[in-house]
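Researcher: Final request for today, and then I'll write up notes for the group meeting. The sequence and the SMILES for zinc ion follow.
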Amino acid sequence: MAQHFKDTSSCYICLTYMANPVSLKCGFICCLKCVNSLPRGPGGQGVMCLTCSEVSQKSDIRPKSQLARLVSEVRVLEPQLRAILRMNPRMRRFQVDVTLDVDTANNHLYISEDRRQVRCVYEEQKRRVCPERFSASFCVLGSPRLTSGRHYWEVDVGTSTEWNLGVCKESVPRHEEVDLSSERGFWTMSCREKERFLASTRPLTVLMVSPGLNRVGVFLDLEMGTISFYHVGDGTHIFTFPPISVAEPLRPFFAPGTPAKDGGSFMTLCPGFSPSVASAAGQGYGALSTAGTDAPCVPTAMDTSPSDADPAP
Ligand SMILES: [Zn+2]
Ligand SMILES: [Zn+2]
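Model: Predicted protein-zinc ion complex:
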């Protein structure tokens, strides 16, 4: 987000924060000093816009003083914004050991024996019939169910190009196509084509994510009612949903991309520190949540292709 503010406050020509911004006749904005590096108009008169080629005479060039003030504010705030939006290392004290709840897994999802890996497969998995299983969408829930307090977990999405993960209400419908929408009880982040990221708000929020997102941190704060996503690799904040108030348990949610779209890549739950493991290792993680015993699943049907209009798999 800090980078986004910086980019939109930058000059198209010198690529740094705009200094004394001016506008040309067509509305193109750049630094005053950069006007000199624009190509000359026909006969050496005026300067030509880099994007639309319209020629502006000297009298057409206007200072943008309000923009100048805004740019200087952004410039001053950038370091603070970067600091505020970084992952707080203390979040890891709330790390929970999330595993996949096989009884909720759609039968086109392969779940590893340790219940930490899931991917979508063509072959139907043979599992017992249970009402909590997603039958229409390729989803699986994680355990434990979360009812209070703060919880943090990390999901390795590896080289996967399509995935959906986050949190959902325990009561979400299991036998109809999942509509990944916060209005329907899904607070998720989705990846499409490796580099487009969406949050399941209505309307969808397009997310700006720094490059190289291989591991996503999810922080659920049920005291504040917030659900946040982090880029674990560089520690940047990705998105926080507006506060929610939910009177029922929430579950971690996962929906890998279909094999056609994603080549069957795994989503992997990173092991959390359980209190016993932490104390055995002599680590001071005193405030850990206990790990649950069963896990939730995620969405989608094989033939449903997620789109911009609907991030549901
Ligand atoms: Zn410039
Ligand atoms: Zn122009």
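Model: The chain has two domains: 1-85, 90-270. Confidence is low (pLDDT under 50) at residues 274-313.
Researcher: Thanks, that's everything.
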